[in-house]
Design brief:
Length: 174
């Protein structure tokens, strides 16, 4: 049995973007077409933020949480169970940096688009130096960043391949 006390915990956020909808009846918010589930264990941070009622549409938030999976645990649902919601400011389109991580789905080379959950990402006009050197394909785990998000479309400036960190339920991490 190992015992000890952590002096620091680091996490990777799932998404940093604008809130587009808040539903207090279902305890959810929508950030860049991703549903975020909030519960009593969710920690809120940021100036003046204490709970779901202190957030507003167009607030810029950083979300850290667990992607929820379907019953047989084979595919991610389009929902993140938030453990931390950090309000970092207000979103201004074409100015405020935003980013999201996820697995590429419905890759379309001709249209220069793909999906991350329900979010459509356009990489039209992205410089080759800001794309993965081996190209893109379904199933790759990526971090997408940019400043342009409107009407459910994220027109990005950069796409990077990332390692996916995941542990099965009840895993021991040291």
């Amino acid at each position: 049995v190992c015992t000890g006390q952590a002096t620091r915990i680091r996490f990777r956020n799932n998404i940093e973007g604008p809130i587009t909808a808040i539903n207090q009846l279902t305890n959810t918010i929508r950030v860049m077409e991703q549903d975020i589930q909030v519960d009593d264990a969710t920690i809120f941070s940021g100036t003046g933020v204490t709970d779901l009622t202190s957030l507003q549409v167009n607030d810029l938030v950083s979300i850290s949480g667990l992607e929820e999976r379907d019953q047989d645990r084979t595919r991610a649902l389009d929902r993140i169970h938030a453990r931390l919601i950090d309000k970092t400011g207000t979103f201004t389109n074409n100015t405020t940096p935003i980013q999201i991580k996820g697995s590429v789905e419905q890759f379309n080379a001709a249209a220069q688009t793909f999906k991350l959950g329900q979010l459509t990402v356009s990489f039209a006009g992205v410089a080759p130096a800001n794309l993965p050197s081996g190209g893109l394909s379904d199933g790759q785990y990526v971090e997408v960043s940019g400043t342009n998000f409107a009407s459910g479309l994220f027109t990005c400036d950069r796409i990077q391949l990332r390692d996916r960190i995941s542990y099965p339920d009840a895993s021991r991490v040291e």
